[in-house]
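Each lists sequence, tokenised fold; shown next:
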Amino acid sequence: MLIGGQRLEGHRFIGWNFVATRRERIDAAKRAWARDEFPRVPGETERIPLPD
């Protein structure tokens, strides 16, 4: 993937497939994924589990 444009202000944290400006938001997203709270992608039947 190639992304162009001006640099974003502030830091970004990455955890698995999640990107956020705060680690707390990454942790919340991981918990939501583990509880299967994200909407399904139409036509997709496979769900990838959160890695350890």
In short: Residues 36 and 42 are 15 Å apart (CA to CA). The first strand starts at residue 13 and ends at 15. The helical segments are 23-34.
